[in-house]
Every structure is written in structure tokens, then in C-alpha cells.
Amino acid sequence: GESVGLHLPTLSVQEGDNSIINCAYSNSASDYFIWYKQESGKGPQFIIDIRSNMDKRQGQRVTVLLNKTVKHLSLQIAATQPGDSAVYFCAENIPNNAGNMLTFGGGTRLMVKP
Amino acid sequence: NAGVMQNPRHLVRRRGQEARLRCSPMKGHSHVYWYRQLPEEGLKFMVYLQKENIIDESGMPKERFSAEFPKEGPSILRIQQVVRGDSAAYFCASSPARGREQFFGPGTRLTVL
Fold first, then answer.
1. For the CA atoms of A8, B95, B27, B7, what is the dihedral angle to 10 degrees?
2. Substitution target from B40, B45, B91 for chain A, most A beta carbons within 10 A
3. Using the beta-carbon criterion (under 8 Å), do B102 and A105 form an inter-chain contact?
4. How far apart are CA A63 and CA A22, in angstroms?
5. Which residue has the higher pLDDT, B90 or A30?
6. Residue percentage of chain A with pLDDT more than 70
7. From A43, A89, A102, residue closest to B105, measured CB to CB
8. Percent of chain B surpassing pLDDT 90
């Protein structure tokens, strides 16, 4: 059920350092994973995705790692900048009979200190 | 190429009134998803629609909530007889096909007084 009143876990990093945000997903049948970034007052913004037949994918300054054995996903941000401050959500795509839908994790707030 | 559009961005309703939230998907996208988000929480799936069809409404309350995506025009999420617990941000996303990345709109923030 929904968690009411819980605060998001927060990761605080120094500008220029690397950030690692972790996510445990729930369903071993999930075939596709996405990381989203959500800034205050805005909708989630697509960052990077990965399919279940891969274990690593790199983008510009971001890398996603997938460990299917332990159902773990991570987002690595290199040389973190103040503009990276936001809430980051992982989402897993669970195939089902009705159609595919995304199930979102609870989110991690990244705070970048100048 | 405009992104996903939602309006209004902010909506205030009194208890018992109706709320209508609109979503125009990205050009070329025929799959629309509605999510609800409470402060400091993740997004909860509500409903998945394709043009003129509801594909999956397993996340939507059975009463007072309905959604449509007509052949012409935006997708509409309708909440009848709103209660304070309906106050939340409602996000719409669209994708070009099933199993593809979803692109989100800016959301509608509903406040029920």
C-alpha cells in the first residue's frame, strides 16, 4: 500500500564528485528499466534506460548498471553538478496481459553542495 | 515537436465538485498513461489508454474516477465529487508503443478545499 508521511531518502554529494543512486526492483519478469529525474514542480524527465538483456549502458555523464541476480539497478552520475539536484526515480516495466506498465520506485533526493 | 501538454497546471476545487484534467500526448504517440503523485512520494499508476480504448485501469479507484482518450482531442481524467484526499499532482505520460519509454507532461496540481 502507499507509504504516507515518509520522507524521501537523501543523497548529499559535493559538486564535482560522482554520485551513485541505487534501486531495488521487485519483479524478476521485468524486462526494461528507466531512470527518471524530477525537479521540483516539474514532471519526471527521462534520463536513461536499459533492457534486461544488458547489464550496463552509458550515456552522457550517466551510467546505468543492472544486476538481475539480486534485482538491483543503479544510476551513476559523473562529475555531479548543481543542476543535477533533483529526485531520481527508477521504474521497471512489468509485462502483463493487459499491456506494459511502469512501476516506480520510491525515489531518492540528490542534493549537490557547491 | 511539442512535448506532452497538460492543462490546467493548477486546479482548485471545493469538496463535491468535479475536476477535469486534460492531456495532449506527444505528436505520433497513441498510448497515454495517467499517474498520481503525493508529496514526497513516487508515482502511482492509475490508467493506461490507447485511442478510444482503456487498456488497463487497475490503478484507478472504481468510484468517482474515469478516463477517456477519444479519437479526436486530448485524454481526460475526470474526478467526480472530489474529496480532500484527491489533492495530489496528476501526471500524464505518452509513448509511441507499448513497452517503450514514457514521456511525461508537467502535471496538474489538484487542490481540494
1. -40
2. B40
3. no
4. 12
5. B90
6. 90
7. A43
8. 78
